[in-house]
């Protein structure tokens, strides 16, 4: 079985967030499960620079304003594995330094609609077999940036592969003025209520949701949540209509990169049987964040975008009480300027108890996971979340809102779970300041009962948060889709 993944980023070639981690971590697990996966991505400078030996396999005379070449290459990974990559080398669309989506002024590139329509059109063409030795059974598109591949394949006149669209965050929909539609090269019948049209505009994500053979999200709970108006982001009616092909598959993590026993970014490497070595990381984290060395203080970490969606405004309101209770806080992230200023001010006001690094630093992110006692994720909605999975792996007890993938991946330390010996963290609901405050009180009580704390910590570290189980579920999904497309199976 051959899979063509369509994504706007892939770790470690290019990454702005969790999407890159998923598209970089899932293919090796799919390969091991029998679904040979190639990923097609835009030919950003960072991508082309990582594939010096790539070879041209196809050329488009014009791809939305200029010529484009499909380059085929591999990127080596650990343990002899590699990522199979197709790069869309279209300088007029992708030869821009920095962020894949934003210019130096922080605003979206004005031609993002054409840039990611170009990715989708190239992926669809490859998916239909224009390159003789590149045949695919499934085209698996990720988020709105990849969704147009599904749309172009739907309107392809001839045999086509099955299509899957994974929604990583329904809030981002690739919405553009209707004036873009004539430039997309699609029939007029695509611009309808049950297609790309969305309140008079064009929505790439809505088109993908309308035409995909299968729709997945990144957790079972989020798959249910988005069919209701509270979390449906205006697309809940469409998703209820397509509920028969909608499912949720929880994300995993790259457990080779995120492994405390081998992590070269932390000073003290450890495992479940050597938790004492974790102390070196807590000491290093305190030094990096300017926190006082207080042996019995509970240290809480945060690695997040600083936005209200992530619930970080609620945390700001809890900092005084958190410090008064003897806890410490280490924050890494960037986002809303007001929240950035609030955390910087808190670090200045509570010198030695609150530390803050604005921006993103991979080394600091690993150090927070390895050195914090607990990891806080108070999101108001969260399709899956990865930081709580890293926390489980690293023995930082996750404290999470009971939403989306957070609810699916953390077992609350309630009385029944503690008696059964299965608790891995703390959940709270509702996602309010009062709910968060109660969760912090529960966390502190757990910290003071060290035998129970140790059991919860070790339970989390024993949880399988890898891609293996999720990859097997994706393979089962692909197989069910292919079983409905016998003509395609015979052709391939």
Task: Give structural attributes.
globular, alpha/beta, 492 residues, 2 domains, Rossmann fold, 39% helix
What would you say this structure looks like, in words?
The structure is a single chain. By secondary structure, this protein is α/β, with parallel strands linked by helices. The chain has 2 domains: 2-252 and 468-491, Glycogen Phosphorylase B (Rossmann fold, 3-Layer(aba) Sandwich); 272-462, Rossmann fold. Helix content is 39%, strand content 19%. It is built from 19 helices and 18 strands. The protein has helices at residues 18-32, 45-49, 91-94, 112-127, 143-154, 204-211, 220-225, 236-241, 279-289, 312-324, 337-349, 362-371, 387-394, 404-409, 415-420, 433-448, 450-462, 468-483, 486-491; strands at residues 2-6, 36-42, 55-60, 68-76, 82-89, 138-142, 162-167, 175-176, 197-198, 201-203, 214-217, 246-248, 299-306, 328-335, 354-358, 374-377, 397-401, 426-428. Strands 3-4-5-2-1-6-7-11-12 form a 9-stranded mixed sheet, sandwiched between helices. Helix 13 links the parallel strand 16 (374-377) and strand 17. Helix 10 (312-324) runs parallel beside helix 11 and helix 13 (387-394) packs across helix 17. The longest helix is centred in the N-terminal third of the chain and has 16 residues, at 112-127. The protein is globular. The protein starts with a strand and ends with a helix.
């Amino acid at each position: 079985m051959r899979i063509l993944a369509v994504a706007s980023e892939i770790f470690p070639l290019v990454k702005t967030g969790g999407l890159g981690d998923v598209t970089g971590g899932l293919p090796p697990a799919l390969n091991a499960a029998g679904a040979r996966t190639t990923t097609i991505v835009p030919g950003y400078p960072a991508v082309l620079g990582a594939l010096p030996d790539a070879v041209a396999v196809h050329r488009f005379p014009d791809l939305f304003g200029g010529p484009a070449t499909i380059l085929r290459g591999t990127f080596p990974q650990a343990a002899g594995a590699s990522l199979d990559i197709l790069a869309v080398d279209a300088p007029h669309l992708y030869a821009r330094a920095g962020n894949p989506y934003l210019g130096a002024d922080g605003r979206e590139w004005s031609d993002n609609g054409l840039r990611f329509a170009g990715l989708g059109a190239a992926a669809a063409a490859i998916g239909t077999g224009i390159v003789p030795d590149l045949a695919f059974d499934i085209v698996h598109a990720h988020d709105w940036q990849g969704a147009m591949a599904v749309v172009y394949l739907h309107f392809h006149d001839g045999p086509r592969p099955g299509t899957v669209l994974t929604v990583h965050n329904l809030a981002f929909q690739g919405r553009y003025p209707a004036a873009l539609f004539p430039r997309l090269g699609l029939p007029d019948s695509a611009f309808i209520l049950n297609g790309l049209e969305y309140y008079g505009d064009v929505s790439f994500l809505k088109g993908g949701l309308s035409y995909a053979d299968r729709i997945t999200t990144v957790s079972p709970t989020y798959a249910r949540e988005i069919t209701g108006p509270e979390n449906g982001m205006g697309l809940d009616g469409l998703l209820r209509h397509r509920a028969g092909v909608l499912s949720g598959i929880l994300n995993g993590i790259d457990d080779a990169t995120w492994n405390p026993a081998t992590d070269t970014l932390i000073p003290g490497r450890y495992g479940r049987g050597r938790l004492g070595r974790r102390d070196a990381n807590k000491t290093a984290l305190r030094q990096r964040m300017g926190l006082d060395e207080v042996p019995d203080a509970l240290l809480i970490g945060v690695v997040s975008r600083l936005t209200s969606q992530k619930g970080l405004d609620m945390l700001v309101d809890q900092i005084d009480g958190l410090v008064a209770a003897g806890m410490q806080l280490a924050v890494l992230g960037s986002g809303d300027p007001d929240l950035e200023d609030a955390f910087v001010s808190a670090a200045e006001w509570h010198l030695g108890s609150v530390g803050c690094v604005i921006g993103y630093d991979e080394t600091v992110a690993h150090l927070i996971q390895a050195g914090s006692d607990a990891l806080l994720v108070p999101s108001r909605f969260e399709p899956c979340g990865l930081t709580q999975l890293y926390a489980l792996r690293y023995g930082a007890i996750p404290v999470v809102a009971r939403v989306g993938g957070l609810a699916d991946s953390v077992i609350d330390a309630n009385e029944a779970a503690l008696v059964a010996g299965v608790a891995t963290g703390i959940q709270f609901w509702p996602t309010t300041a009062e709910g968060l405050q109660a969760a912090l009180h529960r966390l502190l009580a757990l910290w003071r009962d060290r035998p129970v704390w140790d059991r919860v910590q070790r339970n989390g570290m024993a949880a399988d948060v890898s891609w293996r189980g999720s990859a097997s579920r994706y393979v089962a999904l692909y197989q069910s889709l292919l079983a409905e497309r016998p003509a395609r199976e015979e052709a391939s």
